[in-house]
Design goal:
By secondary structure, the protein is an alpha/beta fold. The protein contains nine helices and 18 strands. The strands form six sheets. Strands 2-9-8-5 form a four-stranded mixed β-sheet, with no helix packed on it. Strands 16-15-17-18 form a four-stranded parallel β-sheet, sandwiched between helices. It has a three-stranded antiparallel β-sheet with strand order 3-7-6, with no helix packed on it. The chain starts with a helix and ends with a helix.
């Protein structure tokens, strides 16, 4: 065989192999074509507004909506029809709204429009009476994480009405509620509401302690204030800023007053820089934080008792003042915690007292006020020993005035909370 014939043979062999390969692979490619999945209805479920899958109750002339779930492979096959066993007792719309027509019992059958064999049924009881009004004993309830509070409800209804209640919560990450009305604090929802107030107290009043619980609820955020202080000190050193004396309390007002002539802008800018740097760094960590709300300690109410027990001198014992006077009985709805300015100490004291009252099962309004601006509708005024006489002059006639030696003494707050509880019993 010469060279040309050898080359021709190799080319022919290669072409033949390619043809065989292509012929063998073509059927495989065709076999990979997707086959249409068969559309089916797997199940049908119906649930009453109460959560029951077996029965529901509705008053005559009233309506309830059934929740229907169809487990199907295609949305088009999730349509259902409704069938009623007794049309004189109830009627049902195409959207699953059941209306009571006459006292009695009937069954609603939910049928899949695609597969008639897939059904679900629920028994409906129609009662002649109706609930007219439902009223809670409290319009708001403040709780710390882990604490619980009991709500009671008054149901106004006609005879034979269905008075069974369903308790629900708008946000289970903040609070849960049982079938008996016991509410438990779970998450940090209140912290978001109380944070602006704490910021005002710190900026205007200069009481930095109010921000501690917020920072300690997520310790990584402490880096924000640290870096903010570093940035402010760098700016003040570079621009030759500073004050003529100690800035105490550390409020923006005190800073302005203590700023020397010509350095007001420099000092205020140092304050702004510290705040801006702190904000950016804290925001960075909070945006990336994946901790569930129910794993974060509650900050609502700014309970500082866990951080500050008292301000006694070394060697002194922290003892709450014993109240040996007879406890008067009265309906307490509003408590005023009063200090000279009504901003710093009284704000923290009011918060601590509210926490102790809640733990004792007492839920009333506790406000912080100036000793010279005590509201007319207040029932109890709590103030420091030094301001006791001023409180007696400023408080409305008949107001109970309770003395407290130290605004941040946790033991005194507990004793006062117990006294107020006894007053209301």
């Amino acid at each position: 065989m010469n060279g040309k014939s050898t080359v021709k043979s190799l080319i022919a062999l290669t072409m033949a192999g390619a043809m065989v390969f292509s012929m063998n692979t073509m059927p495989v490619s065709a076999a990979k074509k997707k086959t249409k999945a068969k559309s089916t209805v797997k199940s049908v479920k119906v649930v009453a507004p109460s959560g029951s899958k077996k029965s529901a109750t509705v008053a005559k002339g009233k309506s309830i909506k059934l929740a229907v779930t169809v487990n199907a492979t295609k949305k088009a096959y999730k349509k259902v029809t409704y069938k009623v066993s007794n049309k004189k007792v109830i009627s049902v719309s195409k959207k699953g709204v059941v209306k009571g027509k006459k006292a009695g019992t009937a069954t609603v059958k939910v049928i899949s429009a695609k597969n008639k064999k897939k059904t679900a049924s629920i028994k409906i009881k129609v009662v002649s009476g109706a609930v007219k009004k439902v009223k809670l004993n409290k319009s708001n309830l403040a709780l710390n994480v882990g604490d619980s509070g009991k709500l009671s409800v008054k149901v106004t209804a006609s005879k034979k009405a269905y008075k069974t209640l369903k308790w629900t919560t708008s946000n289970k990450k903040v609070a849960t509620v049982t079938s008996k009305g016991v509410v438990k604090g779970i998450g940090k929802g209140t912290a978001k509401k109380s944070a602006p107030g704490a910021a005002i107290i710190q900026i205007i009043g200069g009481i930095g302690e109010v921000s501690f619980p917020y920072a300690l609820s997520k310790p990584i955020t402490i880096l924000g204030p640290i870096c903010g202080q570093i940035a402010a000190l760098f700016w003040l050193t570079f621009m030759d800023g500073g004050a003529v004396g100690a800035i105490s309390p550390g409020s923006i007002i005190a800073l302005i007053i203590m700023s020397p002539k010509g350095k007001l802008f420099v000092n205020v800018m140092g304050y702004v820089i510290a705040a801006a740097v702190s904000f950016v760094i804290v925001a960075f960590f909070l945006k990336r934080d994946k901790t569930p709300d129910d794993e974060v300690e509650e900050v609502g109410g700014i309970d500082l008792s866990q951080f500050v027990e008292s301000h006694n001198a070394p060697g002194e014992e922290s003892v709450a003042k014993a109240d040996t006077t007879t406890v008067e009985k009265k309906d307490v709805k509003k408590i005023a915690f009063a200090c000279d300015a009504g901003m710093g100490s009284s704000a923290m004291g009011a918060s601590m007292l509210k926490t102790q009252l809640n733990k004792a099962g007492v839920f009333v309004n506790v406000d912080h006020v100036s000793i010279h601006q005590i509201p007319e509708d207040v029932d109890v005024v709590i103030t420091n020993t030094n301001l006791l006489e001023a409180a007696k002059k400023e408080a409305p006639a008949g107001t109970t005035i309770i003395e407290i030696k130290e605004f941040l003494n946790a033991d005194e707050h507990k004793a006062i909370a117990q006294r107020i509880k006894q007053m209301m019993e």
